[in-house]
């Protein structure tokens, strides 16, 4: 599993092999069972995660008690909450493993120590955050401007593995539609392909 992280660091940094090995030797890798909640809506997170294997769902519980899925994190994606602006540092989201998962687990309390020890790690994190925010802006703009069917087609094009990895009701919530509407869209697209 550490090889996945090596590959990822090589993509994002110019660290030499010795520095990469030093960082990898310090990281903590954990396995999580399907259904494990990493942290809940309202909690103040103390950890960040990097998915080596598996799938994690980000969702909120609305005022009516419904779960609203806003993202899925899969291999080579990091999970962090940007909530430093909030006085209580609480998360607006719950993060739960949709599959058995293996992740690098970082302690936010020792994050600065790691950056001081490995300055390239901070640069890597900065670049990852920039790309993530850019991607989120792009996806949000496309989501707002598209129909449910277009959203599903985009998902098929950009993240096709999610179709088989997550339950349909969660996928429907992520697309902003009902499970019944998703079934109709899938059937229509399947018929168009025939």
Automatic annotation (TrEMBL):
**The keyword Aminoacyl-tRNA synthetase appears for this protein:** no
> Which SMART domains does this chain map to?
cNMP
| SUPFAM superfamilies the UniProt entry points to | cAMP-binding domain-like (SSF51206)
Give the matching Pfam families: cNMP_binding
Cyclic nucleotide-binding domain segment(s): 11-78
Superkingdom of origin organism: Bacteria
* Coiled coil regions, renumbered to chain: none
Keywords per UniProt: Activator
Mind telling me what this protein is named?
A: Crp/Fnr family transcriptional regulator
Organism whose genome encodes this protein: Paenibacillus antri
